[in-house]
Write a structure and sequence with these properties.
This protein has one helix and three strands; from the N terminus they run βββα. The chain is elongated and about 90 Å long. The relative contact order is 0.06. The chain starts with 6 loop residues before the first strand and ends in a 13-residue tail after the last helix. It folds into two domains: 34 residues; 36 residues. The protein has a three-stranded antiparallel β-sheet with strand order 1-2-3, with no helix packed on it. It is an alpha+beta fold.
Length: 100
């Protein structure tokens, strides 16, 4: 693509992206991102998908186990609260009207 005289090519010092800026318009006309070197190989795609599936399954199993024990913990807390409520004496609550 032919550059106009009003276009300037600038490289970003942070991300190394090349920007083409038109000084007449005062805006970026085009940009080109640098090639990233950490792209996975296509031959490794099956292994990567299998690893991700195993990770998802492990997280799911952990969630299932926590839900199984959650019910037991809630029932224990309920039993303790019920015992405590039975041990406390029954008192009549005070009302604002009774304080006068």
């Amino acid at each position: 693509m032919a550059r106009l005289k009003s276009e300037i090519e600038v490289t970003c010092p942070c991300c190394h992206t090349t920007l083409v800026v038109d000084t007449n318009l005062g805006r970026v006309v085009s940009h080109k991102e640098p090639e990233s070197g950490n792209k996975p190989e296509f031959s490794e795609a099956h292994r990567i998908l299998a690893d991700e599936a195993a990770r998802r399954e492990a997280i799911f199993q952990q969630s299932v186990d926590s839900e199984k024990t959650r019910g037991d913990a809630l029932s224990r807390r309920f039993e303790e609260a019920l015992k405590q409520a039975k041990q406390e004496p029954i008192t009549k609550p005070t009302r604002d009207f009774d304080l006068d």
